[in-house]
């Protein structure tokens, strides 16, 4: 373990079921590990509607909203966004209003989109081709609209990925270190999917601040390596800008963009085959948008001897996403037929 920084965390609203379970995947290790052990940090079990990594970030963002008198949570994402569904659930639990700015158009209800509707989120639809910068403009416009109605909105960026949201995974690294100690793990590689960069920034910042003996390997599900490395550093620098006690050094980032496939929200047959096989072996369900791509990247790199860490123990961060699999039922059925 390296040097540990004593942290004064910002206020946090306890929403997640924590600590999340930590399991050795013995059959998966035998199938794919190439002599290494694969463990799973089950952040898919942080709650029911709050399942997944987004709730860790939202604990800090919700506390900010409550402490500043906000009455509305506004955020943005894809139609099947895990983060948007989780934000709608948090707002409902806390008695707040919620607006979701979603890329797409009104369609048949399924998955996260169905749940967001059930949770009474007000939905604004924008073009599927809306860029991140354009979404920032939409969020600002929404904040002004709510203010004109006498409401105060907290606008949350895509994925909850900003200098406040990353505290969720800085804290999660403390939890992981307790898991490592309990299971006598001295050096590990932490593997996860990165889609908006906040979990990536938080894990790498947590490793730095807590002195964890860990490499963080981030598998991109969109964009490219340079984008995510820069985004994670930007979140870290934004945090350091108002917390002078934090160390004046960059976080270490290691991103793979080899397994994005056809693009965000789309996956090839190989992803569905891998997630179907893992479900049969371990009773763990991944999704084809995030965790399926990261896990497939992990096992492919192991099989090709290109995994960028020498650690003999690998921790796969299961960041949730189970509701995102339902819109892909036909592709899953095809994978089951091939299996």
Write a structural description.
This protein has eleven helices and ten strands. By secondary structure, it is of the alpha/beta class. It has two domains: 204 residues, Rossmann fold, CATH 3.40.50; 107 residues, Rossmann fold, CATH 3.40.50.1100. A six-stranded mixed beta sheet has the order 1-2-10-7-8-9, with helices on both faces. A four-stranded parallel beta sheet has the order 5-4-3-6, with helices on both faces. The protein is globular and about 60 Å long.
Question: Topology of this protein?
Answer:
Layout: E1 22-24, H1 26-32, E2 37-42, H2 54-67, E3 72-78, H3 82-94, E4 97-103, H4 111-118, E5 122-126, H5 132-148, E6 153-155, H6 167-182, E7 188-194, H7 198-210, E8 214-220, H8 225-242, E9 255-256, H9 269-282, H10 291-303, E10 313-318, H11 329-338
Parallel strand pairs: 2-10, 3-4, 3-6, 4-5, 7-8, 7-10, 8-9
Antiparallel strand pairs: 1-2
Number of helices: 11
| CATH class annotation of the largest domain | Alpha Beta
Helix/sheet category: alpha/beta
- CATH architecture name of the largest domain: 3-Layer(aba) Sandwich
Helix content: 40-55%
Give the CA-based shape. Answer: globular
Q: How is the largest sheet built, in terms of strand order?
A: 1-2-10-7-8-9
């Amino acid at each position: 373990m390296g040097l540990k920084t004593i942290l004064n965390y910002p206020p946090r609203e306890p929403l997640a079921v924590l600590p999340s379970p930590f399991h050795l995947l013995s059959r998966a290790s035998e199938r794919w590990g190439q002599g290494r052990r694969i463990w799973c940090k089950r952040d898919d079990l942080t709650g029911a509607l709050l399942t997944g990594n987004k709730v860790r970030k939202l604990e800090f963002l919700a506390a900010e909203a409550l402490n500043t008198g906000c009455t509305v949570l506004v955020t943005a994402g894809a139609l099947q966004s895990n983060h948007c569904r989780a934000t709608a659930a948090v707002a409902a639990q806390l008695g707040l209003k919620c607006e979701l700015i979603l890329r797409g158009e009104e369609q048949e209800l399924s998955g996260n989109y169905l749940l967001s509707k059930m949770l009474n989120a007000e939905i604004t639809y924008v073009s599927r081709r809306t860029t991140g910068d354009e979404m920032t403009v939409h969020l600002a416009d929404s904040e002004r609209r709510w203010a004109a109605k006498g409401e105060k909105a907290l606008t949350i960026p895509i994925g909850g990925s900003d200098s406040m949201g990353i505290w969720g995974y800085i804290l999660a690294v403390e939890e992981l270190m307790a898991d490592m100690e309990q299971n006598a793990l001295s050096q590990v590689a932490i593997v996860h999917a990165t889609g908006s960069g906040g979990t990536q920034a938080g894990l790498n910042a947590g490793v730095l601040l807590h002195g964890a003996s860990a490499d963080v390997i981030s598998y991109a599900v969109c964009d490219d390596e340079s984008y995510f490395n820069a985004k994670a550093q930007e979140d870290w620098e934004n945090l350091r800008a108002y917390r002078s006690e934090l160390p004046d050094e960059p976080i270490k980032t290691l991103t793979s963009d080899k397994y994005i496939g056809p693009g965000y929200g789309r996956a090839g047959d190989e992803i569905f085959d891998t997630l179907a096989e893992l479900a049969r072996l371990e009773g763990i369900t991944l999704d084809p948008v995030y965790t399926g791509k990261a896990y497939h990247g992990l096992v492919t790199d192991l099989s090709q001897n290109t995994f960028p860490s020498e650690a003999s123990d690998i921790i796969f961060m299961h960041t949730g996403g189970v509701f995102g699999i339902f819109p892909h039922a036909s592709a899953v059925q095809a994978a089951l037929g091939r299996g």
